Amino acid sequence: MFKKLLLSLGLLTLMLVSPLQGAVHAAGPSCYDSYPFKFDFAVQTKEKILRAICPGKLNISGEITAFSYEGQRSVIVKISVYDENDKLVDSFEVLAEHGKTVRFDKSLGKIKLGNYYIKLKKENDGTNWSFEGSGTISSE
C-alpha cells in the first residue's frame, strides 16, 4: 500500500512538473500611460526616478513656480527626458518668471516601452533661483 501511494505521488508530481520543464516564461513588462511627478530644486533636480512608460507619443505637462533671490525677472528652465541608459530622448525649454506659476504642455516624439526619467535644470547664468512644481509624463 505504501509503495502504491509513493508511486501515485511520484506520477502526480511528474505530471505536474513535466509541462514546466523546458518552458521559459518571460515576465511581461508592466508599464503605465502616465505618472505624476513633483519637484523642487535650485540648480537642477537630483533624483533619477525611473518610470516604466508604455509605448506611444510622449507628452509632459505641468506647472513651475520660480523665485529669484537677486531680483531677476525670468530664467530659462530646460526639461529633459532620458531613458534608463541616460540617453537623452527629448527636451524643451520653459521661460520661468519670478513669483509666477507658468504652465507647460509639450508633445514630444514617440517612445518605445521602457524606463524613463525627467530632469529639470536652470540655465547656467550664475543667478540664484528656487523652483517648485508638478506635472505628468504620459504616452498616448
Could you describe the 3D structure shown?
By secondary structure, the protein is mostly beta strands. It has one domain: Galactose-binding domain-like (Jelly Rolls). It has 1 helix and 8 strands; from the N terminus they run H-E-E-E-E-E-E-E-E. The strands form 2 sheets. The protein has a 4-stranded antiparallel sheet, with no helix packed on it. The N terminus is likely disordered.
The assigned structural class equals: mainly beta
Mean pLDDT level:
81
Lateral strand order in the biggest sheet: 1-8-3-6
Shape: elongated
How many E strands?
Answer: 8
Could you state the CATH homologous superfamily?
A: Galactose-binding domain-like
Ends distance: 64 Å
Order of helices and strands: HEEEEEEEE
CATH architecture: Sandwich
Helix content: 10-25%
Show unreliable segments: 1-28
Largest sheet: 4 strands, antiparallel
Total helical elements: 1
At CATH level 3, the topology is Jelly Rolls
Strand content: over 45%
Q: Please indicate the count of domains.
A: 1
CATH class: Mainly Beta
Radius of gyration, in Å, reads 25 Å
